[in-house]
Specification:
five-stranded antiparallel beta sheet; transmembrane; kinase; Helix Hairpins; Heat Shock Protein 90; transmembrane helix; rod-shaped; Beta-Lactamase; HATPase_C_sf; phosphoprotein
Length: 490
C-alpha cells in the first residue's frame, strides 16, 4: 500500500512539473518573443540569400562578358593569321597559351575537319572533337556553357576565313570558376557573420519589446493579486492598451456587481432574520398574554389561538417560499417539462383565483389570440402566473379589473398580466423582483404576502429560458409581460 502511495506522489509531482513546463510555453511574453524573432529574422535571411545569389550571378555574368570579349579578340587574330591552315604561328600560339593561363583554364582549336590542332594541355592534340557545341559553332553560333558543379565556364567561338565568308574552325576556352566560388564563399561567410550579429541584436530587441508589450498585462496581474488581499474593495485601472482598458473595465464592472450581490446577500440575510422573527415574536407576545392572565375567557383564548395559528401559517409560508427559491437557485434543478395547452392552463388559473377577485369585486378577463401549445413545467409555470395574477388582484382598486392576454409567434409565446391597480413608483420598479422587497410594507403585510412571490416568478421564468418585463405607472396600473420559448431546450 505504501508503494502505491509513493508511486502516486511521484506521479503527482511529475504531473505538476509537466504542467509547470507547459505553462511556460503558454506565456504571452514568450509567444511575442518568438513571433518578433521570426518576423525579424526570416526576412533578413531571405534578403541576405537574395543578395548572395544576385551578387554571385552578377559576378559570373560580368566575368563571362569580360572573357567573351577577350576571346573574340583572340579569335579575330587567329582568323586573320590563317592559323587554322598554318598552326605553326608562334605569335598566335603565344596568345592562346597566355589567354588560357590568365583564365586558369585550357584553350583548344579545332579545324574544319573536326581535328584538334591545338590544345594548351597537349592532351587532345590530333584527336577529333565532334561535340554539340563544336557542331553549333560550325553553323556560326557562338556558345557559352556555365557549369557551377563542374567548376568551369566553356566559351566556344567560331573562326572565320580571312574574308569572313565561312567558318573554318572552332576555338574552345575552358575557364576555371574556382576564384568565383572562393569569392562566393567569402561573401557567404561574411553574410553568415552579419546574420549572427543581426540575430543577436534581434533577440535582444525582441526580448525588450516582448517585455514592454506584455508589461500592462503584468500590471493587471499584479493589481488583481493585490485586489485579492482586499476583496471587493479596490478597483484596477490599466490604460496602456485598449485591451487592458477593456479588461480593467470588465473587472471593475464585475467587482461592482459582486459588491451589489454581497450587499444583496447581507440584506437578504437581514430580511430573512426579520421576516422569520416577526411571526415568532407575535406568537410569544400572544402566548405570554395568555399565560399572564388567570381565568382567561374561552372567547379570548380562542381569539388568541386563532392569531397564533395565523402567525404559524405565515411562518410556514415564508419557509416554503424560501425552500422554493433555494430549489430554483440550484443549477442542477430539472424541470418536469411536458407539452401543455397554455390557453386551458391560464383559464384554470383564473378560475381558481376568481373567489379572491370577487372579494374585491375585481373583474378577471382572459384574452387568447390563438391556440398555444408549449413545452413547460406545468406546476412551476402555474405558480409563476398565479403569483402575477394574485398580486394584480391584491394590489388593485375595488371594482377594478385584471386582464390576462396570450399570444404567440413562431418561436415564443407571450403572457401579459395587466391591472387597474395602484401601480408601482418608478424608483421601486427595479427592485420589485428582489427577495423580501416590498413597495408598501404595511399594505403588503395586510395582503398577506411574504415578499418572495415575484422573486420566485422570475426564477421560474428564467429556468424556462424566458424573460419578464415590468411596465407601471403610479395610480394607473401595472403590466407584467412574460416571454417563453415554445420549445424547451435543456
Amino acid at each position: 500500500m505504501s508503494i502505491r502511495n509513493g508511486a502516486l506522489v511521484i506521479f503527482s509531482k511529475d504531473k505538476k512539473t509537466r504542467e509547470k513546463k507547459f505553462k511556460r510555453f503558454k506565456s504571452l511574453r514568450l509567444i511575442w518573443f518568438v513571433l518578433l524573432v521570426l518576423i525579424g529574422s526570416v526576412p533578413v535571411v531571405i534578403i541576405n540569400r537574395i543578395v548572395l545569389a544576385t551578387s554571385s550571378n552578377n559576378e559570373v555574368q560580368s566575368r563571362i562578358s569580360r572573357i567573351q570579349n577577350q576571346w573574340m579578340i583572340v579569335a579575330n587574330q587567329v582568323s586573320k593569321s590563317g592559323y587554322v591552315d598554318n598552326p605553326q604561328n608562334e605569335v598566335v600560339e603565344s596568345e592562346l597559351v597566355q589567354m588560357a593561363s590568365l583564365q586558369d583554364g585550357r584553350a583548344i582549336v579545332v579545324n574544319q575537319g573536326f581535328r584538334t590542332i591545338k590544345d594548351t594541355y597537349d592532351i587532345d592534340t590530333g584527336k577529333y572533337n565532334i561535340s554539340e557545341s563544336v557542331l553549333k559553332c560550325f553553323s556560326g553560333e557562338a556558345n557559352v556553357k556555365y557549369s557551377p558543379g563542374a567548376q568551369y565556364i566553356e566559351f566556344t567561338q567560331p573562326i572565320y576565313s580571312s574574308d569572313s565568308t565561312k567558318v573554318v574552325g572552332v576555338m574552345i576556352l575552358s575557364s576555371s570558376t574556382r576564384s568565383l566560388e572562393e569569392l562566393a564563399d567569402k561573401l557567404e561567410s561574411r553574410i553568415w557573420m552579419l546574420e549572427i550579429i543581426e540575430f543577436g541584436i534581434l533577440v535582444v530587441l525582441s526580448a525588450l519589446l516582448s517585455s514592454w508589450m506584455t508589461r500592462p498585462f503584468r500590471k493587471i496581474a499584479a493589481s488583481l493579486t493585490h485586489a485579492t488581499e482586499n476583496p471587493l474593495g479596490e478597483e484596477i485601472k490599466v490604460n496602456d492598451y485598449t485591451e487592458t482598458m477593456a479588461i480593467s473595465d470588465a473587472y471593475n464592472k464585475t467587482l461592482k456587481r459582486l459588491r451589489i450581490l454581497d450587499e444583496s446577500r447581507q440584506q437578504f440575510v437581514s430580511n430573512v432574520s426579520h421576516e422569520l422573527k416577526t411571526p415568532i415574536t407575535s406568537i410569544r407576545v400572544l402566548a405570554d398574554s395568555l399565560l399572564s392572565q388567570e381565568e382567561v375567557p374561552a372567547e379570548l383564548y380562542q381569539e388568541f389561538m386563532a392569531d397564533i395559528s395565523e402567525e404559524i401559517d405565515r411562518e410556514s409560508q415564508i419557509i416554503e417560499d424560501l425552500l422554493t427559491l433555494v430549489r430554483l437557485d440550484k443549477a442542477s434543478t430539472e424541470l418536469n417539462v411536458t407539452q401543455i395547452n397554455v390557453n386551458e392552463l391560464l383559464g384554470s388559473i383564473l378560475k381558481r383565483l376568481k373567489p379572491i377577485a370577487q372579494q374585491k369585486n375585481v373583474e378577471l378577463v382572459l384574452e387568447s389570440f390563438r391556440p398555444v401549445l408549449a413545452e413547460l413545467d406545468k406546476t412551476k409555470f402555474t405558480l409563476a402566473i398565479s403569483n402575477l395574477v394574485e398580486n394584480a388582484i391584491k394590489y388593485n382598486n375595488r371594482d377594478g379589473w385584471v386582464k390576462v392576454s396570450l399570444n404567440a409567434d413562431h418561436k415564443f409565446f407571450y403572457v401579459k398580466v395587466a391591472d387597474s391597480g395602484i401601480g408601482i413608483p418608478e424608483s421601486d420598479q427595479e427592485h420589485v423582483f428582489e427577495r423580501f422587497y416590498r413597495v408598501d410594507k404595511a399594505r403588503s403585510r395586510e395582503a398577506g404576502g411574504t415578499g418572495l412571490g415575484l422573486a420566485i416568478t422570475k426564477g421560474i421564468i428564467y429556468s424556462h429560458h424566458g424573460a419578464i418585463k415590468l411596465y407601471s405607472k403610479e395610480n394607473e396600473g401595472t403590466t407584467f409581460t412574460v416571454r417563453i420559448p415554445l420549445i424547451y431546450i435543456a
